[in-house]
Amino acid sequence: MNKQTTLVSEDEIHAYVDGVLAEHRRDEIDRLLETDHALATLVSDYFSLNSMLHDRFDRVLQEPLPQRLKMQDEVSANSAPGVAKVDAGRGPAANWTKFARFAAALVLGIGIGVGGMMSPPARDMMMSAGDSTPLRHVSLTKDEAFARQSAIAYVTYAPMVTRPVEVGADQEEELVKWLSSRLGTDVHAPVLTRVGFNLMGGRLLPGDEGPIAQFMYHDANGERITLNVSHRKVSSDVTAFKLYQDGSVNVFYWVDGDFGYAVSGAISRAQLLAVSHDVYEQLTARNGQGTRQ
Amino acid sequence: MDHAPRLRRYARALIRNQELADDLVQDTLERALRHTDKFQSGTDLRAWLFTIMHNVFANQARRADARAVHLSVDEDPLDESQFAVASRDTQSLEMRDLDYALQRLPVDQRQVVLLVGLEDMTYAEVALALEIPLGTVMSRLSRGRERLRALMAGKQDGVQLKVVR
């Protein structure tokens, strides 16, 4: 359209704006922009189109997902009295959960499973399990299933850049209130600064036994860990810490009265154990009355 | 992972009407779930989801045409509620112009402009997601951006941008 089109092709202008132009050409265009005002205006308009699109629509990322696209839906369906499973194809919520699991398997590439690798049949089971029932792992005990699920949730959410948590630590009070109401019991986010971790926030996850609260923490290096808390239907005595390992993810899990706990992270076992002890001490101090002998 | 919010953002920009946009995301996720076996492990999940979304969208648009249900903003009176809060600041005027201009773009150009400008996909990723050649991506991007720019400047098709002063 202008004289510069003989020097710079349209494709190059777009590639420049989108930051994919080879560096030497980028430099040449940079120099050209200093003298060619028409080109500079065009480029600047294209830049501002991109930024306007983000200004206008990025807010959608922050909006809470509507009920029908939300995985928490399944949780409410699941926790209804006597409802132990999600009906097949009953709307997107169940599907969404299934999808989250599917995606979790993809994050891992080959998937995680007992012993670190998941065999193809096991993966098929995981993919198809949601058709009629929530994910079942026949070979795992309930506690192991919880640990495994925590590992999956960890690899699903910990690497997220944009929204690793649903509610941030800046709204801790709201977070705790929300999670407590969904779990039907008081839950607390322990303070883990002593072992070097700060609360980032949390989210609610569906579990085989009802909703699970997930708190996420990070340390100064950006390393993330999660604490998952489940509210168990059947109370039991406190158990010892058990270790579950899936690839690079270690999970320490234990049961204390009505609660199941799982601390997951891709950090050393010693470090994760220290965190787990800290969690245990704080939560036992809080929940000490009543649930345990 | 976080694909649902991104699919939502893109759908909202593409169709604008929030209900219809969420329908599209929902249908996309459901379809993805029914066809997980078709996903090639190790390939780009996001591109795969966007491909599905475009197929779903194309089908919806076809059906909508037949039923004379409009996905276009032209028959969708300005959705005031969406802007009720933002309408006080001056930026919202520009945003409204943008919405309006976007809906004036032919849908194939709109898709490319949004995937590149909003979804930050590379041209190759767009070609993959839309299942079109790279050259087509470039020409749609070029035409789409130029048209959008002109629309935003209020000088094409005699379109009166709804700038209220």
Judged by helices, strands and strand pairing, the structural class of chain A is alpha+beta
Would you give the CATH topology of chain B? Butyryl-CoA Dehydrogenase, subunit A, domain 3
The backbone outline of chain A, from C-alpha atoms, is: elongated
Got a strand count of chain A? 6
What is the number of independent domains of chain B? 1
The radius of gyration computed from the alpha-carbon positions of chain A, rounded to a whole number of angstroms, is: 24 Å
State mean pLDDT of chain B (0 to 100 scale): 76
Looking at CATH, which topology of the largest domain in chain A would you report?
Answer: Phosphorylase Kinase, domain 1
Q: Look at the structure and name the CATH superfamily of chain B.
A: PhyR, sigma-like (SL) domain
The topology string of helices and strands of chain B comes to HHHHHHHH
Which range does the strand content of chain B fall in? under 5%
| Number of distinct beta strands of chain B | 0
| Sheet with most strands: strand arrangement of chain A | 1-2-3-4-6-5
> How many domains comprise the coordinates of chain A?
2
Query: What helical percentage do the residues of chain B reach?
Result: 55-70%
Cα-to-Cα separation, first versus last residue of chain A: 83 Å
> Span from first to last CA of chain B?
43 Å
CATH architecture verdict of the largest domain in chain A: 2-Layer Sandwich
DSSP summary: helix tally of chain A: 10
Write the layout of secondary structure elements.
The complex is a heterodimer of chains A (293) and B (165).
Chain A: H1 10-17, H2 23-35, H3 37-57, H4 59-62, H5 72-79, H6 92-107, H7 120-128, H8 142-157, E1 167-168, H9 172-183, E2 198-205, E3 212-218, E4 224-236, E5 242-246, E6 249-265, H10 269-291
Antiparallel strand pairs in A: 1-2, 2-3, 3-4, 4-6, 5-6
Helix pairs in contact in A: 1-3, 6-8
Chain B: H1 3-15, H2 18-34, H3 45-67, H4 80-83, H5 91-104, H6 107-117, H7 123-130, H8 134-152
